[in-house]
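Much of what follows relies on a compact textual record of a protein's fold. A record is reproduced here so that you can trace the correspondence yourselves:

. . .
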Amino acid sequence: MNKKIGFIDESGNKSIHFEKEGVTTFFVVSAVIIEENLVSEIREKFQQIASKFTFAPEVKSNAKAFRDIGDRLKFLQAISELDFRIYSVIVDKRKIFEESGLQFQNSFYKYTNGLLDRELYDYYPFLELISDQHGTEDFMSGFIDYVDKHHRQTDLFKGPSFSFRDSKDEPLIQLADFIAGSVARCYEPSKIDSRNNEILDILHKHILHLREWPEVPLKFFGNIDNEDEQYNQELVDFIFYRINEFFTSNQESQSPEIKNQLVCLNYLIYRFKKNPFSYAYSDEILDRINIREINVTKRVLNKEIITRLRDSKILITSSTSGYKIACCKADITRFYNNYSSKIVPMIETIGKVDTVIKNATSGNLSLLEDGEFKLLRELIETTNSR
């Protein structure tokens, strides 16, 4: 496998005193993953782009140059042409404090470390992580300890590699800082802007997953009208209950097949939160799965990934537009129509073939009269009587 380098930085702080000015309600840690052989090229291109937007020696997401959402979007649009991937963990500190009753720092680090370990390495078994030596040292030290204790060593995976660098000397840590800060703007109440959704639109092709914790209630990146009769909350609640059960049952699995299913499901969840009514094309899902360098095909995606998730009662619908998590009656209708458009012609074809065979053999050969094909015969009769 080709080695990947992950540059990590954070946005937010660990304080739970939300009433104080400057204390964030969300903590975001983002990993920007780059092919090792492309690191030098992307570093140089990032510096060239940055020089057109700021004269500061270091790119910082909270810099004055990017406070205006228009300026931020222009910079994001420029760097979106670079070849990198994004994996982010977003922690709502209010819910940790309210629901867990645990000391914030302990619960926060423990769970966030676990999410990074389980999921980031699901995507990239061979990964070197480089973090800013200022600000994230406590977090990254906790992550290193977590991985040492929990990550299963295998013949293929000999252990993660970590290092710390000063962000002033490593432009790609500055890139991670800007991504983390931009993702945070989609969550932080004090930074909400009507154009914030454009951030995710620009970064869409780079995003592997935006992992939120806690994930209940489900948070959408855009506005959903719960009174819209198209959107069935009862259906969505059931499906995400099944999704949570699937994650809980399989999060420690080392099975390659299960990992493929988890990567696929993560992407469908992200797409659902971005727009619950839109479909993800097969190529988009395969692009995320195949970064693990396993060459999953569209046939395997349908037969061994989507079907297995459906077997777990996770309702993933499909149409000519792709796949999505169901959210309304129309999704189910399209799903049924999609299958009936394939199944009904097949049944009709078998009926026609049986008629030809009977005519050719003067009625001496008709397999549909056999007991083993009783159900098929009844389906053909039903189809013909429509």
The chain has 13 helices and eight strands. The two ends are 55 Å apart (CA to CA). The beta strands are 4-11, 26-35, 85-92, 127-132, 161-165, 207-213, 316-319, 322-325. The first strand starts at residue 4 and ends at 11.
